[in-house]
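Prompt: May I have another protein with tokenized structure?
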Amino acid sequence: LTTQWPTTSGAALQNYTILEVSKDIDAPKWVACHPRPYPYALYYCHYLDIGSKLFKVLLKGQYGDIMDALAICHIDTSDMPPNHIIFKYLGMKPGDGPLCHFFPVKHVVWVPLPSEASS
């Protein structure tokens, strides 16, 4: 799963309105991968299995751009590193509450296909 930007006005920055949010994507465990600044495709990937939920979110930009975005909510932040940059930006500490954010374009989340046992 990834964030897709199928239409573009060419505007670098714009405000977005949430048009639709899916129910959470039922995946008991998943791997998030983030591109690294190298001259070839290189990703930093990490495994998550508890305390977070994934959502697909349909967004509309102020200049008409439509974006199908992937969002994650870390419901339980108590085990996150206290020096994580997001806590500084939001003035929070681990365990203060949930943190939600969008995955930028070119960031990827791998989720398992549903099995008969999970259906």
Summary: Residues 85-90 form the longest helix (6 residues). Helices lie at 85-90. The mean pLDDT is 86. Residues 24-70+101-112 form one domain.
